[in-house]
User: Fold these one by one.
Assistant:
Number 1:
Amino acid sequence: MDPVQYIQTLASAARAAAGVLAQTPGGARDAALRAGAGALRDAKAALKAANEKDLTGAAGLSEAMVDRLHLTDARIEAMAAALEQIAAQPDPVGATISAINRPDGLRVEKRRVPLGVIGIIYESRPNVTADAAGLCLKSGNACILRGGKEALHSNLAIARVLRGALAACGLPEAAMTVVDNADHAVVTAMCQAEGLIDLIIPRGGEQLIRAVAEAATVPVIKHFAGNCHVYVHADADLDMAERIIVNAKCQRPGVCNATETLLVDAAVAEKFLPRVAKSLIARGVELRGCDRSRKLVPAMKMKKATEDDWRREYLELILAVRVVDDLAAAIEHINTYGSHHTDAIVTESLAAAETFVAAVDSSSVMVNASTRLSDGGVYGLGAEIGISTDKLHARGPMGAEDLTTYKWIVTGQGHVRT
Amino acid sequence: MDPVQYIQTLASAARAAAGVLAQTPGGARDAALRAGAGALRDAKAALKAANEKDLTGAAGLSEAMVDRLHLTDARIEAMAAALEQIAAQPDPVGATISAINRPDGLRVEKRRVPLGVIGIIYESRPNVTADAAGLCLKSGNACILRGGKEALHSNLAIARVLRGALAACGLPEAAMTVVDNADHAVVTAMCQAEGLIDLIIPRGGEQLIRAVAEAATVPVIKHFAGNCHVYVHADADLDMAERIIVNAKCQRPGVCNATETLLVDAAVAEKFLPRVAKSLIARGVELRGCDRSRKLVPAMKMKKATEDDWRREYLELILAVRVVDDLAAAIEHINTYGSHHTDAIVTESLAAAETFVAAVDSSSVMVNASTRLSDGGVYGLGAEIGISTDKLHARGPMGAEDLTTYKWIVTGQGHVRT
């Protein structure tokens, strides 16, 4: 079928389902989530069989990608448990955000409602299919999921199970659809389905996200990766600083909230750099430093950093290191080279912390804490649909509430405009 | 200058100014707004002289457009008064939206901050220049304003006055810039200035907004016009219904929250239609009805409505009229043909009101009130930057708070991820 027609058909069905979901009480949506969890557990064999087909077709993919694609018993259990956790969260829909009574008796209420239909475009990991569907259902939205073609059999199998659970609970199956058309033109059609799809969330590499943002006329919330920083201020507790940078770099280097650049205040560089360099090198981290850093640790293995290193998101055990003159220089570096994702200061100075928090233009600013803590779970959002690098609508970790909008409800007794 | 370079230069200066504004207390921003109001009053002669140049060049424009372009003493006073009203509003910046302490002592705060740099693309009315600049300054944002070329002299004169007021108050002039390059490529460059401009708000005709949305990679909040409805339910107070539809259609027909279609429940059509038709025709309204409507008021002048009429935004004294079988049919009509802007029900039935409010997918849903009341002032937002027809970030009337985002501030005592 023509990709535009194909998406129009899917999205029209999703839109009708969204109309039903918007009027379904939270308890019914939660019951469907729990039924979905049970159904995933019951369908382990079928899910693994479908996954096997994807793995067989995965020749040529990197080992890391094959690993991400793999559905094991433990991962199926984790998907089911995530749906149960989502069900246990408070209902994000229906709350009154604000309400006023005007002097003439008109009541103006701002009430939280679902967005409608959400399109999610993502890569390889099949668990995203269940997580995204769960968060959309929780927030009363229908969803259209377009995963990578390498995971198509797995994604379709998950969808079959979850749609069965929806139907068993009396909810429309079209509330959740996995796109079974691998044609790339389908992605473009989704991005341009104005009036049918209310929001597109692309999750994956920078190239995918950029392509989606460029093609889209439907609103997009982008999830770019992070070039995160830890700045060790002149008044830092250096033991704490070492603990934080080691965690921020090494605990899980392949994710967006891992730190990529260490900034050290000139006032403590001589004291701090040798010990932290030793500690990081012992953990297998490759250091790339500015000239001042390299002079302070001549005995250490530290490559020379280039301008390009300040902009890199390594996503591996490499750390750029720079000595900065002061707080202002650290802020300037972060706002110039950073990706406005998550940046940290280590300091005992209240004034320095306040200046850093106010001036660093990032979605998360950490004081005496690791950048790795930038996370929906840590922030109390429950499950997370992603970490938005946009400023509009949702910034930083996004939970189910961020998949809602609001409606103004105005109640009068024959009020007119004069 | 090359349009891309031109915008990069402007936007870089605006970005630096935004960094200063983000750290300027509310009192200082309010003082600059009041200084701007005074300066506009003092500069009446210069503003009118600049406006005279635009009016001289306006040959060929419609009378309505020339009227909108005209800066009179009263309109200059209204611009000044609007800035003072904006200054008097509470500061939208800096509030704590939420804050939690995690079990391990980590504090997670969500704090409201300015967006950064806002680009506004608009047509003819020069007062938008002062209003938009005022709301951006109030919310701590820098702005780049691109008005119509027919109003360029007026817009530049207003900008000169307001920039002078900023400078006199110690704030950066680059916080507010009117684009003086009439090349249309500048609009495209603004829409694609990712990383320099945080939000584009187009205000004007549908064609302008669509062109901006299609060209943009920067987030856009669209302000499309409205195809608004009044539905008279079976249990309506018919006197109230007549008062509301007359107001919604006639009080100011040329604006987006004026009503374009009247839906009458079959149960009351025979009783209601003749009287309301008479009343509307007496006020010069042209009626275009469905077959059932026309049969019920054979003596009235009622043209036959076509499918196209259900979708039209007339913006003049024309009203489409349709008899619907019941509440469900009214909702179906509105969600199918409407523009999701503002729609009203007139009813004494609580159940009907609740169903309508839940099922109509519009930014404002009115119960027993005129659609004309869909307005930032009425909703208590103070001055209004526009009425968003998007669902993301801001929906319906947008005030200064809608020009902000938030930042996560995470404070630990050496907290790391385990």
Number 2:
Amino acid sequence: MTGEIERLFEAFDAGRSFALARAVSIVENQRPGIDDILGRLHPRLGRARRVGVTGPPGAGKSTITTLLTKAYREAGYTVGIVCVDPTSPFTGGALLGDRVRMESVSLDPDVFIRSMATRGSLGGLAASTREVADVLDGFGFDRIIIETVGVGQSELDVARTADSTLVVLVPESGDSIQTLKAGVMEIADVFVINKSDRPGADRLRNDVELMLGLRKGAGYSNVPAHHGVDLKRIMNPARVAREDAQSNESDTWTPPVLRAVAVKGEGTTEIVDSLDRHFAYLERTGGLRARRRERIVERVVEVAERRMRKRLWEDEKTMQWLNGRVDELESGRVTPYMVADELLSGFGDLVKGDGK
Amino acid sequence: MTGEIERLFEAFDAGRSFALARAVSIVENQRPGIDDILGRLHPRLGRARRVGVTGPPGAGKSTITTLLTKAYREAGYTVGIVCVDPTSPFTGGALLGDRVRMESVSLDPDVFIRSMATRGSLGGLAASTREVADVLDGFGFDRIIIETVGVGQSELDVARTADSTLVVLVPESGDSIQTLKAGVMEIADVFVINKSDRPGADRLRNDVELMLGLRKGAGYSNVPAHHGVDLKRIMNPARVAREDAQSNESDTWTPPVLRAVAVKGEGTTEIVDSLDRHFAYLERTGGLRARRRERIVERVVEVAERRMRKRLWEDEKTMQWLNGRVDELESGRVTPYMVADELLSGFGDLVKGDGK
């Protein structure tokens, strides 16, 4: 196994694309070797800029992603794209068009595209996305675009894994601007009003700017919420540093609200420029470092939880023991709380005893 | 605190609705007292029948829920309703109409309605829904309807917490019947083709029946997927019992595909009858017991994981320690894997040492 991973790494370091695809698959599916790969890539992370692209269905996210990719390629950068699709079980195959649209960039050998589908129920998608982005970062891509195709809370969680997040809206969504949940306004670093040649574009832009103005007093923050873990308690030093930097009143970031007609390529330059300015802002204020430190801590949290759960629920003895308690549980003689406590009181040994 | 919970319980046991609402809020928001409440209610669970109602947006789920509620009330049953709304952050307020529609039953004192919104990212919604349903069960409701309003994987997870699940489809979804993901077919115990006075209803019905026929050979199963935990390994005895019962070839369940025009009240009798027949089937074959045992084990898993995470991430010392490692992590001297392992090697003491 380790020898195999070793050979994979040689090819990976030599920039071979088959090795990249293999490594991404191992990480995405949490197959054996994932810890070796991510552990080894860890010191190399932080070269790439990560851009999130999110928005309601039909807003043109894939088109914007394609435009951004072309612009980055023209500037000489390599681009890795992670498309995340946490779609409804009831509306499966509606996205073929998007994938076809992306074909124009997918043939470029310096562009790597990976689509990730919903996985399980445990909010593992954001974690997996971050890890796949790490592999792309470690491979040496200059730009990583994380596009969320579907709808739902996971969209926000995925977007939070980026350095800068584009929120793409369309005039059709104008009526419901008030219904955009708070989270959307929180994560947006740049707004793009796509299809802005349609009626209602100006009004939508005004509405978004009005909302941005209203929350200006609240200050700018992008705190990744993680599993109910209060990262602020871990991240205090970095956070304080960032807040210090931002106490320079003249250096705050108000998300620009850009107009675009992505199918005609209009607005690309402004989008790229705004992202560059946002990145410069993050670097200048310490926000970039803070975000990256937050990502690292999130990764520790995820790895620790994944291991705990693996050790607990894949242990044959534990399963047998739990199996033997089901009758008592069913009869109401014991409660799930009692059994869980018993289980955990034996868990310390389990964690320590087990090698990996 | 405990005295307060004690008084809450007295009022709860006396059937006071304010106490029910308080208990539900405590459980839904995982506030202190949740363990007392759920632990104490555990022996009372299993009286209520739990019916899940799911389907794509616009299929008429709320109308079906309202009809079911009225039918159950006419039969003399009390009804608790849990509406779960894991909607997109981009399409917030679209569901007011549904809530208004339900007003006809919401004034009935023997009907309790609670709406639950998306919570956090960790797939905690299905667990919370099950726990709120447990409170309703413990309070003495005869029927519990769990309606999922939104879209996404969580819909399926929530539906899995019921004894019987209605999947509501509409002719408009006919074209995309092939795109219904496998999970939808797996969880459906009864299909309802709503708005069946519209064109395409017969075709949709035929399509669904065709799909059901195709998978008949695969046998009928409703295995709750939980967090990647392979429940089959825990649940073996019950499962074997159920499979034995089902080896009686003549006693299998093929989900009926019913027609309804819910806004006109057409089809209610057939839906109620089918649910009764399905419940009788579950009782007869041991499937009901198996489902309820699975729910109990799932609860143990959830409680154990919640506690582990709480102890780990709310421990001041752990946080400080982790805080002190961020610089090394950032510089690449250590990897998140090393830190997670160090963390877990100390976790045994943490679990054992901490009282609660």
Number 3:
Amino acid sequence: METQSLYKRLALHYLGAIKAGTLGAGDRMPSVRKLMAMHEVSLSTALQLCRHLEGQGWLEARPRSGYFVRHPQRIKLVPVEEPHSGTPIDPAQFVGIHERVSAIIAQGQRPIKFNLARATGAADLYPTVQLKNLAIRILRQRPQLLTKAIVMGGNKELKNALAKRALDYGISAAPDEVIVTCGCIEALNLALRAVAQAGDVIAVESPTFYGLLQVLESLGMKALEIPTSPQTGISIEALQLAMQTYDNIKAVVVVPHLQNPLGSIMPDQHKQRLVALCEEQHIPLIEDDSYGALIDTESAPTAAKHWDSTGNVIYCASLHKILAPGLRVGWMLAGRWQARISMLKYAQTRYNEELSQLVVAEFLQSSAYDRHLRRLRATLNVQRERTAEAIAAYFPAGTRLTVPHGGVSVWVEMPHQLSSKAVFDAALEHGILVSPGLLYSNSNRFNHFLRLNCGMHFTQELDDALRTLGNIIRQLAQAQLQSAA
Amino acid sequence: METQSLYKRLALHYLGAIKAGTLGAGDRMPSVRKLMAMHEVSLSTALQLCRHLEGQGWLEARPRSGYFVRHPQRIKLVPVEEPHSGTPIDPAQFVGIHERVSAIIAQGQRPIKFNLARATGAADLYPTVQLKNLAIRILRQRPQLLTKAIVMGGNKELKNALAKRALDYGISAAPDEVIVTCGCIEALNLALRAVAQAGDVIAVESPTFYGLLQVLESLGMKALEIPTSPQTGISIEALQLAMQTYDNIKAVVVVPHLQNPLGSIMPDQHKQRLVALCEEQHIPLIEDDSYGALIDTESAPTAAKHWDSTGNVIYCASLHKILAPGLRVGWMLAGRWQARISMLKYAQTRYNEELSQLVVAEFLQSSAYDRHLRRLRATLNVQRERTAEAIAAYFPAGTRLTVPHGGVSVWVEMPHQLSSKAVFDAALEHGILVSPGLLYSNSNRFNHFLRLNCGMHFTQELDDALRTLGNIIRQLAQAQLQSAA
């Protein structure tokens, strides 16, 4: 167990009660004395619990009266606009995003106070101590994993554990089908190399994460950006139309669950239609499911791969965002490209090191993994709500925001087509790093958007940072209006 | 320090005396009692020392007289034939080796008694306990390396340590120039992707290790196999001729130090000529230096990269063979392709995990690394000698063998153009895995060769296995002669 986890677990319990309405706005929180007795905890833990919820904005302290529940006022936010049937599709084009990404990343290499650009939670949202203890135990039991040549085929324990967990996503796969990779990014590389060549056209969501665009650029492939809904993901109609227009699409890449950057979740029916469409058109479907486990529900979402009966879907995932951002443990199920992708993986990086795989395998096999995910989802939920609340309060009128049902970030549309690069530069002056929308499309369709992380604990300082960011956007918007006038 | 390392260190001391002739064949080894007094060690350590040297064949026990030095009789072996100016060069061709390699590997997946096919030493030749202790200490000090997102640019400590070590090879590089990769194999992939495309011609040594051929196959590149001397490496003349014949060679890949499988070492003058030739012809030179540290000399060999003044040499290496076969820590210096290769690495697998890098960095910075290398080289030297001796004694007339000046394997030419696949199959029946020569050339020029590992402790059982292998070869050779008659 983590240090301090007791009060955090209690906090989640009370947060549930608040969200369910059991404790309403204005209700009095049980007194510290009562909390101590009810939960058999120390004074310090009971106080930590209350202060924690207070820090998150769910309680307010009234002098000499104790703690009272407050419902953070949920200001109505206008959701990000849906693409419509008239949304134009840019022609397929070679990708040239890397220099833009590198320049942004290089600029962010100065000391910063708030990194709102990352796509993982803060380290303390993950089970650091448990994983560390596991790693030490495994090193003691099997020190030769450091110095013994890795066996052909790679680590069996992890393949077993992943195949078992895949059942939760509706995927039935033999452990031997699992190919462990260096992060999901290697899985995407291998999938694309297996089904396409330099010069080929790949259909991707628009916006999409720049990591995928960089992969396409590095492989010399063309991106065909398909309009994608902030609510329901890639537009099946637009994709269908694109397939009629282009006869050389060699693959479709989608993130059906908590799409990056939109946070959209494809309804099951859409996933099913997408799988059928790709099969019908003989176009491989590459599914990136790195975030599925972060959806705000107890039951795991069903992967598109579930509806795949011909091996046309290549499923790629990773433990990077959901369990351990410091580890590079990705994996894939390669469908009918199993032999070719196994060959490519072997020729590219051989098998992964053993230690990380064993640590992850043991953790996945324990109930600690499920507990961790429940806690992580609940914590992120609160942080997302607080972030949305701050954006609603501090960002200027005309800001649009769809709060996704899970995950570590929100996608913000700024008013007046404001340049995300201008906001990035100005925010950096205040020690705040944001992820500018210009990175999420090769044709620069999303320059007036920002992706903001909500994987950090919501502190007063973070609230202040979001207020500063809101002021920056307001000032830039005003300056733009004035110069236009 | 390793358990039992004391007697091993003493064994190396006495081995030095034997090899220097201070203790000649037939001389009496100091008595166990005397060894105890001289070195202030226990009876058990003194006995272990003598039995260890006995097991390696350097001492023999005479009843009631003690231990006596024996010089393993060095039977004259005919070296493997040198390529000559008339050696034909096959046309550049697409590589189709993977299925052959996979079939061989799949066959070797049964329980075996002796794996003579691997290209690393046994795990106990590497500092398992030291590395494990380092890993545990680092995990305790920095547990968040498991759960904190990896910083852009990767681990600085390892880059510093590698840049410092590179000085020993005559390479002066800034730490920032070091790109850490998932093994040397990823470095080779990145280097080839940076300078060539599918369909391009790459000049390689012949024979060369099948890992490189698989990389070419997976990237759709053509191999042009250049005759290579078991003594001095790639033939500069043949390469020059090939460059005149083909105007589309996009890179030359060489292993200048302990070439795999030959074990050849390029003289400095050859390396210098090679660098100049490639530069003159505007053809990038990719140098794979995975084995350099295993050459039987105290002073490190000079890398070809040393003579590179224009950034035309891409230097690739790994800690896999020399420090920790269980880790996948490779690295490269990308010369004038620094920006492009950094991009490709980031797009392919992001940065490596931190733990292995920190473990390796700390070890490289300590004198333990130099001690480890000295011990490893001395042990391998003895094992190579014993293996050569056994081959000379047990293999049939007509066998040729060049014993390399370092490394973990020997390259054996069998008489009568015997099929290495037939030997592989027959040896497998006896639980012995060998690496057949058919894997080391796309045009199957080396089918009558075997690469045999000498990285395991030379035990009686291993001696028996080599005797069995010799008998297999003799019987197959006789059968072949009879069927031909």
Number 4:
Amino acid sequence: MEKKRPLLLLSNDDGVMAKGLNVLIDILRPLGDIVVMAPDGGRSGCACGVTVSQPIHYQLISEEPGVAIYKCTGMPVDCVKLAMHAVLDRTPDVVVSGINHGDNSSINVHYSGTMGVVIEGCLSGIPAVGFSLCDHHHDASFEPLRSYIFDIVKNVIEKGLPAEVCLNVNFPVADPIKGIKVCQQAKGYWNQEFDPCPRKFDDKYFWLAGSFINTDASNDKNDRTALDNGYATITPVKVDVTAYEAIEQIEAWFI
Amino acid sequence: MEKKRPLLLLSNDDGVMAKGLNVLIDILRPLGDIVVMAPDGGRSGCACGVTVSQPIHYQLISEEPGVAIYKCTGMPVDCVKLAMHAVLDRTPDVVVSGINHGDNSSINVHYSGTMGVVIEGCLSGIPAVGFSLCDHHHDASFEPLRSYIFDIVKNVIEKGLPAEVCLNVNFPVADPIKGIKVCQQAKGYWNQEFDPCPRKFDDKYFWLAGSFINTDASNDKNDRTALDNGYATITPVKVDVTAYEAIEQIEAWFI
């Protein structure tokens, strides 16, 4: 029996029209058959959110040999679930998310819809990787990323990933990029997180804002620091978030 | 100088009117001063989502000695950020979320807005705990949970938690509850995840649905199994999700 070409399921959180997604399709086309299920508009910062209070609708928007593109009214995690349950006739070989317009390193992994796609793929037992560029502009240049993304996805398809582990890949705004570092999630926090935007008679309106403080900046295994130094970063992420080392300490409360 | 009473910041994802939140206020009132910042309506399944595409508005809705209640237009994570940056005059001693109407054990930690509150508290360096009851009805009975919740929050305030670790506490529908087990995140997945809800001329509408399959059910350290056996579960959760043990394997791709 003929071996099927690899099946790549793509999604993102910037929506089906985003440049980053369309560049990603173009980069990965030689690696297999591509099915895209992406939100019909921007869903930035929606993390692993799912749509529970209304139905989700999807629609095929274009199809040519090797690439089918669907959009839906859901969030990034919904896209993965919906594609696997309603559209695909076999399990994808890899789930790929992005290319996000904006940084998802460090603790941003928790807020990221790009990484929502990846975590959902991983929870479904499929090797999964998300790509983000530290430039949120809609016309950001993704050219320096091409060979990196192709090589990483090729490796993921051919070598797989450890069980319950997925990849969070981030790129600096640099040309050329200095190379790749496999990193750990930077420690840090967001400060001064709101900008006031008062409305007549009411000063209780705010925009989420702020800047990220890297509290471990001297550690070059830290993804945020490596990005600052001009490197692409791969941070392996686990979906079993149990703090095993804390179990005994909490158990002692009840003895 | 007089020692201040502990400050407890409360939120949830079922909204400020939910019974679970109001029972939580009642249980925790003896432990300190309570400030609630909760969404103005349901936000189930919104994970660590943040509101980036519109401003957030908040409003004080009631105030009496020891308990101030605010609502806002944001998501659970926004509630924590907004309270800390715009409302509170000191850092809370503990962030408490819930009581959620519905199960947040196992992989549901990734989708849960209840745990979004907790993860945000933990990322801010504050001890944080989320409570959920495996009953999604709006009039669920929370009575058997009272002494457990009081004791757990008292322990968290007095003893603290390890750095970068927070707690995901779930309760079975049982009276009496058999006791507490400190657990690990159950392994499993959701299957048959969509129910069709066709609209005239269009069958591409679906409700997110499905049932959870516990793939490690014989392991009684697994939170879902312990709940099935009638125990309350405490699953310690880490916010550094780096898969440290995978770094070397991924690095080998590039040598």
